[in-house]
């Protein structure tokens, strides 16, 4: 039954995008993206625990990356534009939907493409629109973080917009971390979907860390700070090669409110 509902939901999304999406204003488009994403999570019995209250619009959202679901989790709480690897464009139906709903596709290793994408990100940020990037450049099972790459953080530095790290994690009904949604390694989309549906219900928690205002920082420094902040919230060891890692952790600790620091973050 859940597979049937999912198929109908994807079909409804495709028809909506094809028939009316391009004729709507920005507010209506954002509402549709949010509503569709919320319904997708509901169909998959994924419960969302997130609060982005206080995160300024026009932020560069920087999150750890676990699953193809991450995009819809973010859109369900606050719709935004995304930067995705160019291979996603070739996915059946999902790639077409992404291409027609404010996704920017980046060809890895192509310098000219990166320059163009950064210019488009800066334009969106300057217009007060949120843009999300996954600076690990790949997915993990959520048990660790890959290094954060700084190339796509440059537009926030140039436009003096905040970089907003977000910590994302999935849990099962008993409160233990779940790898069911992980679309990593050799896992196929079909296998990932089967694991999600077999789980019957999942919980996803999304927590903002203190925003980073780049100022005179380099993009590499911002990337290391963002990764350390996310690791702090996820209670993961930030394995950074930067010699200032201890100072970065100190920054994260000072920036968090006492009530947050004294609680269990996840």
Automatic annotation (TrEMBL):
State the Gene Ontology BP annotations.
Answer: phosphatidic acid biosynthetic process
The record places domain Phospholipid/glycerol acyltransferase at 59-171
Q: Which InterPro entries match?
A: Plipid/glycerol_acylTrfase
Which keywords accompany this UniProt record?
Answer: Acyltransferase, Lipid biosynthesis, Lipid metabolism, Transferase
Q: Please tell me whether the keyword Lipid biosynthesis is annotated for this protein.
A: yes
Keyword Lipid metabolism tagged: yes
Give, as in the UniProt entry, the pathway in which the protein acts.
Lipid metabolism
Q: Which Pfam families match?
A: Acyltransferase (PF01553)
List the molecular function annotations (GO) for this entry: 1-acylglycerol-3-phosphate O-acyltransferase activity
The protein's matches in PANTHER family, at most eight in alphabetical order, are given as: 1-ACYL-SN-GLYCEROL-3-PHOSPHATE ACYLTRANSFERASE, 1-ACYL-SN-GLYCEROL-3-PHOSPHATE ACYLTRANSFERASE-RELATED
Protein name as annotated = 1-acyl-sn-glycerol-3-phosphate acyltransferase
Its lineage opens with: Bacteria, Pseudomonadati, Pseudomonadota, Betaproteobacteria, Rhodocyclales
